[in-house]
Serine carboxypeptidase (Paramecium pentaurelia), 472 residues
Amino acid sequence: MKIIVTITTFLSLSLSFQIGAHESDIVDNIMLNQIFNINYQGDLYSGYLKADKEGTTQFYYLFYPAINDSLEKPIILWLNGGPGCSSIQGAFNENGPFVFKAGTSEFELNKYSWTNFANMIYLESPISVGFSYGPQVEQSDESTAKYNLQALIDFFNKFPEYKKLPFFLAGESFGGVYVPTLTKEIIDYNSQQSADNRINLQGLAIGNGCTDPTECTHEAWQFQIHVFHQVGRHNFISEQLYEKVRSVEKQCNEVKTDICTQISKEVEEQIIGKDQKIKANQYNMYGPCYTYTPEGSKMAQRFFGMRQYTEDADIPACADIQGLYHHLRSNKVRNLLHIKVESPEWEVCSRKFVDYKENPKGSYYLYKEILKNQIRVLIYSGDVDAVVPVTGTMFWINKLQTELSLLTLSPWRPWYVEGQREVDPNQNAGYVLDLDGLTFMTIRNAGHMVPLDKREEAEIFMEKFVKKEYFP
Ligand SMILES: *[C@@H]1O[C@H](CO)[C@@H](O)[C@H](O)[C@H]1NC(C)=O
């Protein structure tokens, strides 16, 4: 009897402790609206998650519960890429409930926030990214996946009432590596847990994501074949040069000889000029080039700037990051968001990532197991991105379909945002292809950051995906 009483007391104590554990992370709504000059009515939690068992590694997170009936809606973890870039971009520039007006430091409410249909977590990962901190150890895709799993477990310890909800992973760019590798960690973790302790992972959604070894690996960067196809097909280089690219493609995919380096250089020169003066936006080939430079930055506006990992390319060329720097480097905002002294000065993409070990296999090899575990996959692509272009994504999806003999459930077709177009209500928003277990879609005239360029479209397809609805 006594033992039972003790256990019950212990259980209820630890339970109430758990439920209360997130209260200190709640952001003061009055202050938030004052500092950001908005009228946000929802909740926001801001704080840290333990990314290792000891808690010496702490990952910063933002959590926005869904606007209404949050406990009846799915929960999505969002990861931006890099490696090294902050997921606050996702919250403040892409799909959060308040976002920057283009090219400014002013917030506005986002009608198309993903919090309309889901609970949104944004996690800064791994160590040294954004406000996340920990020991300065060597990092890799493998270690990142392990940290992310621990952070996720800690999230559900803090917010146990969200644990049973359908859970989705979403990511962009190098998130194309983070998301499948974390998925694999979750599959392995779940296989060792009792049913009520498992993470309820239902699906993953990746936008312009690094996947195939021919996309974002160091090997691939020496001859970026899919980028060259993207700029060739869009006439950013001459026909002669594009023919030259195609004539060496096979050979350069295998061995990077001098001719491959030479042709890469010619492509870059044709796009931005020999003197590199042209500010072409690689993230959205037809988009404007924002030139705001944070204090102390030696930003280069080069088309292939981020690929160089040099000191003079510390923020993505042409990206609209003014608002992020303005707010996230201010002490007022650090206080508002409970940022600890241990957290570094915020940067959009950490430059401490020179030693990060990327898996030369990318994440392509993980899809077989992911699909076998019936985790639904949405791969979407803004079709005017020249960083992780649609050409590469279509290349590997085609390869995957052949390799795994995936059935085509519904063939390539246009998709629509019904009746919403001003000029022509039937203008398509892109194209979609449903394979067994994997949907691929393009978003017409969107760049690397789809929810930034096409807010309404992004909200619509993501809501459909989590609700398991397909386009006609
Ligand atoms: C939330 O609920 C309010 C009040 O019922 C409603 O006006 C609003 O449209 C709802 N918002 C969403 C995103 O469901």
